[in-house]
Design brief:
Helix content: 10-25%
CATH architecture of the largest domain: Roll
Mean pLDDT: 93
Number of domains: 2
Number of helices: 2
Number of strands: 8
């Protein structure tokens, strides 16, 4: 077995600062791990010691993928500790979301980042073995 852990996801965004602020609101303990300029475009690794989102500033580009309608990533899931606290935070911050139920989860909360990428925030039931 050669897999160690999932490290990052790479996302292009229209405005890197807007995206950073959005993810900072969801995950207040995240920080800029690294940043720079590559071929004239700004990039940033934003996350914690386990995981990060690689943000690439692409202000002139348009979104072409429609989640659940064509080939591509539909959403990215993050395991959270407290779904009630997350919903309170989302309400306080004015971030729109919707929730779904599943037998293994206590909370499944979905939000869209500023570029329309869907994020799932999931809190598993304590008895769920794979949490």
């Amino acid at each position: 077995m050669n897999f160690n852990r999932f490290e990052h996801i790479n996302i292009s965004c229209k405005d890197i600062e807007t995206s950073k602020k959005f993810y900072q609101r969801l995950f207040p303990d995240w920080y800029v791990r690294a940043e720079g300029i590559y071929e004239g475009r700004r990039w940033m690794h934003f996350g914690n010691e386990q995981f990060y989102i690689a943000l690439n500033n692409e202000p002139g580009e348009q979104r072409v993928h429609k989640a659940y309608e064509n080939i591509g990533i539909n959403h990215v899931g993050f395991v959270i500790k407290d779904g009630d606290a997350m919903q309170e935070l989302l309400d306080k911050e004015g971030i729109e979301y919707y929730a779904m139920n599943a037998p293994e989860t206590k909370h499944r909360i979905y939000v869209n980042d500023p570029d329309g990428n869907e994020i799932e925030l999931v809190e598993y039931q304590l008895e769920y073995a794979l949490r």
